[in-house]
TrEMBL record:
GO terms for cellular component: outer membrane-bounded periplasmic space. Residues 1-25 form the signal peptide. Residues 401-423 are annotated as: Disordered. Residues 102-170 form the PDZ domain. PANTHER family: CARBOXY-TERMINAL PROCESSING PROTEASE CTPA, TAIL-SPECIFIC PROTEASE. The keyword rRNA processing does not apply. GO terms for molecular function: endopeptidase activity; serine-type peptidase activity. Transmembrane segments: none annotated. Belongs to the peptidase S41A family. InterPro entries: ClpP/crotonase-like_dom_sf, CtpA/B_N, PDZ, PDZ_6, PDZ_sf, Peptidase_S41A, Tail-specific_protease. One of its GO terms (biological process) is proteolysis. This is Carboxyl-terminal processing protease. Keywords: Hydrolase, Protease, Serine protease, Signal.
């Protein structure tokens, strides 16, 4: 299933998501999500009169379509399409959710759903890959952020709305689907992949080197905050002392649950505002502040971001940047600074509607602008070259001993290939690690 992220993520949105364009940027699900926001109460006396002329026009159009359209159309279909049109024309992230879409939204919040594992949006009439989700059919097939999906099983996608494209990419587990992609304006090419059950592991953590930890968050799910807390605790236990540095990787993270983004930021902050939202209804005015506990123990922090980092990712990055808690490295983020609230309706349906904008602690709105990194590092290919047959002084016959009595250090013959590390072929990650090492040296750690 697709994880609709920034532009219109519907099928894969998230519950209070702050995710990418759609369901992951900042969503709130009234009764169905952890951070549920119930519909705002309205003052009946303040309601404007019904637009009778427009309603008469609507009824007339519906009547004429039923009478004159080439094929019979039932009332339910016409009314549901009218509702979809009403929502879809508000902004790219508001949408009407039928029973299947609503269920998928709830499933994606829990981190398990069926599909291809692609966050998608719409740009200039084309379906665009916001980011592939790690360890899914899409990522394994080599699909990249920025790819345009121009055909699905041979059918052109131009002119289709987001929901139509998402519906075509969803299907039975194991069934194959062929996507025709265009990358960087090049020649279209086909990628065939099989749908699978997508179990998204939102947090991956490991030690890159002694004293230097790495946490990657693929999206913000309900339990992401707790998982990051556990990863930090394991780092402390395994390292035996305070770490020398930590890298938080938010690249290609389309967003997700708002509360989870707040929890993650709070693991690194001890005071001050994390994020606040502003909208028209009372329930949309929210403020989240950090508590004094510091799960990270103030470890030097580098945050990796790029154009695939959206919504909830931008909340975390913006809070850490404004609070000067970490150094942001990479490229500009996506720029989804709106909050969607999921309002359940009758018959297992719901509205996903934009209700607020969110702001960083310093009052910055990220909407349509994104967050600029402190240090720009663009993606690059890393090519390792073998060392030549060089010799050192200690290799020479009859060389003098060390004046201080130290042991000789002759050339070490290369044996079996060393185990690949994440930083070996990830230029941005290797630069972040180098920066942390430099900070450790200058601080005397």
């Amino acid at each position: 299933m697709l994880h609709l992220s920034r532009l219109t993520s519907l099928a894969l949105a998230i519950a209070i998501v702050i995710g990418a364009p759609l369901a992951q940027a900042a969503e709130k699900t009234a009764p169905a999500t952890p951070a549920a926001v119930s519909p705002a109460k309205t003052n009946a006396a303040a309601k404007p009169p019904l637009p009778l002329d427009e309603l008469r026009t609507f009824a007339e159009v519906m009547d004429r379509v039923k009478a004159a359209y080439v094929e019979p159309v039932d009332d339910k279909t016409l009314l549901e399409n009218a509702i979809k049109g009403m929502l879809s024309n508000l902004d790219p992230h508001s949408a009407y959710l039928g029973p299947e879409d609503f269920q998928e939204l709830q499933e994606s919040t829990s981190g398990e759903f069926g599909g291809l594992g692609i966050e998608v949006g719409v740009e200039d009439g084309f379906v665009k890959v916001v980011s592939p989700i790690d360890d899914t059919p899409a990522s394994k097939a080599g699909i990249e952020a920025g790819d345009l999906i121009v055909k699905i099983n041979g059918t052109p996608t131009q002119g289709q709305n987001m929901q139509e494209a998402v519906d075509k990419m969803r299907g039975k587990i194991g069934e194959k689907i062929t996507l025709t992609l265009v990358r960087d304006g090049g020649t279209p090419f086909d990628v065939t992949l099989a749908r699978a059950t997508i179990q998204v592991k939102s947090v991956k953590a490991q030690m890159l080197e002694n004293g230097y930890g790495y946490i990657r968050i693929t999206q913000f799910q309900v339990k992401t905050g707790d998982e990051v807390g556990k990863a930090l605790a394991k780092f402390r236990k395994d390292n035996g002392k305070k770490m020398s540095g930590l890298i938080l990787d938010l690249r290609n993270n389309p967003g997700g649950v708002l509360q989870s983004a707040v929890q993650v930021a709070d693991h690194f902050l001890t005071k001050g505002l994390i994020v606040y939202t502003k909208g028209r209804i009372a329930n949309s005015e929210l403020r989240f502040s950090a508590d004094p506990a510091d799960a990270s123990e103030g470890v030097p922090l580098v945050v990796l971001i790029n154009g695939g980092s959206a919504s909830a990712s931008e909340i975390v990055a913006g809070a850490l940047q404004d609070q000067k808690r970490g150094i942001l490295m990479g490229t500009d983020t996506f720029g989804k600074g709106s909050v969607q609230t999921v309002l359940p309706l009758n018959n297992d349906r719901a509205l996903k509607i934009t209700t607020a904008l969110y702001y960083t602690p310093n009052g910055r709105s990220i909407q349509a602008q994104g967050i600029n990194p402190d240090i720009v590092v663009r993606r690059a290919k890393v090519t390792n070259e073998a060392d030549g047959e060089n010799y050192k002084e200690a290799d020479l016959l009859g060389h003098l001993g060390n004046g201080n009595g130290g042991a000789d250090k002759p050339t070490v013959k290369s044996g079996a290939a060393a185990k690949a590390r994440p930083q070996d072929d990830d230029f941005q990650l290797s630069q972040a690690l180098s920066l942390l090492k430099g900070l450790s040296i200058t601080r005397g750690n």
